[in-house]
Amino acid sequence: MASTSRTDRRGRGRGRGRGGRGDGSSSLPPPPSTLSLIIEEFFIVVYEDPLVKKALPKKFADYLDGQEPAKVYLRAADCGPRLWTVEVLFDGQGRMYLDKGWENFAIAHGVDFGCFVHFKYEGDDVLTVKVFDGTMCRKYYYSDDDDTDDESDDDVKPCIHPL
Questions:
Q1: In a domain, 19, yes or no
Q2: The model's pTM
Q3: Domain at 79, CATH number
Q4: Among residues 29, 52, 72, 138, which is most buried (max CB within 10 A)?
Q5: What total of structural domains would you count in the chain?
Q6: Which of 4, 139, 123 has the alpha carbon at shortest distance from 76?
Q7: Domain of residue 76, residue span
Q8: What is the pLDDT of residues 74-105, one digit of tens each?
Q9: DSSP string for the chain
């Protein structure tokens, strides 16, 4: 009868059955339904006007269920410490939108049709953002100021794209 185990290069067995440690416990991770839902990264694709409110994935809105913020703070990756305040809308059907303040962020970071915008939730209502253009290449920026969230919404200072 053939064995169901194999030996790797270091001479350790790689069993294919359950309880490979011999103690009756499974070495497999728990089924997905028992894992807590952690949504910390997601992206959106800009198909319509890049300056109007943007819908975020429903899974992310579900993750924030019960903690829906009135605003979030966007930080462009590699663009200094500045936080951009963006108001958030919830539509009552579980959808979350970036609203007032998104337009300024989008202008300053060159968000346009066909861009992919990657978000990473850092906690405390802060999202770090990376923008990829239509060629699927990341746009890199730097900031030459130390301004934070103290600027008015009408004062849009773009990050500068390195030459």
A1: no
A2: 0.67
A3: 2.40.330.10
A4: 72
A5: 1
A6: 139
A7: 38-132
A8: 999 987 789 999 999 999 888 999 999 999 99
A9: ---SEEE-TTS-EEE-SS-TTSSS---SPPPGGGSPP---EEEEE--S-TTS-EEEPHHHHHHTTT---SEEEEEETTS-S--EEEEEEE-SSS-EEE-TTHHHHHHHTT--TT-EEEEEEEETTEEEEEEE-TTSPBP--B-S----TTS-TT---PPBPP-
